[in-house]
């Protein structure tokens, strides 16, 4: 039984918490003892402050509004992929898209955000061309100076 449980443990040398069990594939009987701590499948960084806490306290601290709750009149509250902040774009299931919590939702959101980013890139290229033209015109209008030794006297 222990050998089977260890088969579902994953390890990475690059993480601070280098070994974890995929809880979807591993039986709690193999690694969880009543009264010996909490068992949640989540990512918390840094995790040390949460290790001694019971499940209820961890949930109270980190899962206040973990999911979008669909309901009548809520769709307008979801954010668009293009934000009012210039060149800040969002993607994910929490943004406006047609498939709420599914695999398709974040994918569609990513595609919408990518389209906004491409449009912003075109705007930046046009702006760069305008700036180059302005700098070129400034150079043509600037008085020419000579940098030989006699002109410095």
UniProtKB/TrEMBL annotation:
GO function term, MF aspect, one: oxidoreductase activity
Cleavable signal peptide: none
Amine oxidase domain ranges (all copies): 66-117
InterPro entries: Amino_oxidase, Zeta_carotene_desat/Oxidored
Name this protein carries in UniProt: Amine oxidase domain-containing protein
């Amino acid at each position: 039984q222990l050998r089977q449980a260890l088969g579902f443990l994953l390890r990475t040398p690059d993480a601070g918490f280098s070994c974890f069990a995929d809880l979807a594939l591993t039986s709690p009987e193999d690694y969880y003892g009543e009264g010996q701590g909490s068992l949640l499948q989540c990512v918390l960084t840094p995790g040390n402050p949460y290790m001694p806490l019971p499940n209820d306290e961890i949930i109270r601290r980190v899962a206040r509004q973990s999911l979008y709750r669909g309901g009548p009149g809520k769709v307008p509250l979801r954010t668009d992929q293009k934000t009012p902040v210039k060149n800040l774009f969002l993607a994910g299931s929490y943004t406006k898209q047609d498939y709420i919590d599914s695999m398709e939702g974040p994918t569609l959101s990513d595609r919408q955000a990518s389209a906004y980013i491409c449009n912003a890139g075109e705007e930046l290229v046009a702006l760069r061309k305008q700036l180059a033209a302005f700098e070129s015109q400034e150079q043509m209008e600037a008085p020419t100076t000579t940098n030989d030794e006699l002109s410095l006297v």
